[in-house]
Amino acid sequence: MDYRFADRVKQFKTSAISETTEIIRRGKNVISFAGGFPNNQYFPDEALQRAFEQVFASGSGALQYGMIQGYLPLREAIGVKMSKNEIASKPEDILVTTGSQQAIDLVSRIMLSAGDVVLTENPTFLAALQAFSSYEAKVVPVEGDQDGMFPEDLEEKLQRYKPKFIYVVPTFSNPDGKVWSEARRQALLELAYRYDTLILEDDPYGDIQFRPEERYTPLIALDRQRTHVLYTSTFSKSVVPAIRTGWITGPGQIIRLLTQIKEAADLMSSSIDQQALYYLLRDFDLDAHVRMLGTRYREHMQTMQSYLKQLDPATVSWIEPKGGMFLWVKLGEQVDATALLAKAVEQGVAFIPGAPFYVENPQRNTIRMNFTQMSPQEIATGMERLVKVLGQEQRE
């Protein structure tokens, strides 16, 4: 049959991660640093089980349809959680979503028409680029460095393109793990005010800090007018991914419209998961759990980094992450990371080539490695294999 699909499906492409997964699948006993997964061993299994038991013990009403905007006690608990990061948000200004990826999709749905412009970092989160493209938007990269977007380039592109919004991951970004400086955060917000442009702040990794003495102020906390920043986050990294619960907050007018469009999308996110998450937040010390994750994942990162230090610094460079889940590595200019991946898989180790994360001008000698999923022992084994591959590449 000749299926008459919408024109926008022409924008859909298989992601680099899916393609890499297929390459890895063909290997044998591969230790993969390619995914963006947390470590199963650190999941609060027992606490989560007790939370679900509480839901079932509360009666059959807990199994009924819930509110489109999300379970009210959970939204109140999310408000308390955010207040610890100087984010003041009322429950009526919080929308519970099916992961933060749905929040990105819903914002795109209400904001983007074909040909509209979104400004992003370069490189940036691959799934966000997929969401923007699915609504036929034009994604324009803003140049920057480890401290964030360059204000001069951002202003020039705000003037030239008049974007619908600016998408940023300013705290432990995916893929490159950087943290924006306070000055760059302030500059972004000031330009958003000047050019009356919305910011979509994506913060899935902000809980996972390696330097708890340092503070990274969310953009929404700096937006004293409460008019120019939408903030989305998730429990996928701090609790478990399977619970598929995130949220978005920001100007009330936008949250109301997002709630309306969510009703058309899926009526509501899983009510039983939301209730269980509420009981978990009420009865479990999530703050202590998150501190544990920061300590453990820092050890993972340091193990991975220790092997990179064995290589010639003239051909391998990276910035030590202050949190999050990823190490972003730049190899010698002559290296094609996609070709290198095939050699690495033959040796039993895998990573994600960096090129697909770029909006334009991809640096093909970059790779992203996840240090959270594997144990320190598995990381050591995998990095021994990778160092061997990289060492051979340096000698060629």
Summarize the structure.
The chain is α/β, with parallel strands linked by helices.
Explain what the structure shows:
The protein has 396 residues and is an alpha/beta fold. The protein is 42% helix and 14% strand. It has 13 helices and 15 strands. The strands form four sheets. Strands 2-10-9-8-7-3-4 form a seven-stranded mixed sheet, with helices on both faces. Helix 2 (45-57) packs across helix 10 (271-283), helix 4 packs parallel to helix 5 and helix 11 packs parallel to helix 13 (376-395). The longest helix is centred in the last third of the chain and has 23 residues, at 286-308. The termini are far apart. The mean pLDDT is 95.
Mind sketching the topology for me?
Elements: H1 16-25, E1 31-32, H2 45-57, H3 72-83, E2 94-97, H4 99-111, E3 117-120, H5 126-134, E4 138-141, E5 144-145, E6 148-149, H6 151-161, E7 165-168, H7 182-194, E8 198-202, H8 219-222, E9 229-234, E10 246-249, H9 252-266, H10 271-283, H11 286-308, E11 316-318, E12 326-331, H12 337-346, E13 349-350, E14 352-353, E15 366-370, H13 376-395
Parallel strand pairs: 1-13, 3-4, 3-7, 7-8, 8-9
Antiparallel strand pairs: 2-10, 5-6, 9-10, 11-12, 12-15, 14-15
Helix pairs in contact: 2-10, 4-5, 4-9, 6-7, 11-13
Task: Using brief descriptors, characterize the structure shown.
single chain; 396 residues; alpha/beta; 7-stranded mixed beta sheet; 4-stranded antiparallel beta sheet; 13 helices; globular
Largest beta sheet, briefly? 7 strands, mixed
Number of DSSP helical runs = 13
**What is the radius of gyration?**
21 Å
What letter string, H or E per element, gives the SSE order? HEHHEHEHEEEHEHEHEEHHHEEHEEEH
Strand order of the largest sheet: 2-10-9-8-7-3-4
| Helix percentage | 40-55%
Could you tell me the number of beta strands? Answer: 15
Strand content: 5-15%
The unreliable regions are none
Class from secondary-structure proportions = alpha/beta
> Overall 3D geometry?
globular
Average pLDDT figure: 95
Distance between the termini: 52 Å
Q: Could you state the oligomeric state of the chains shown?
A: single chain
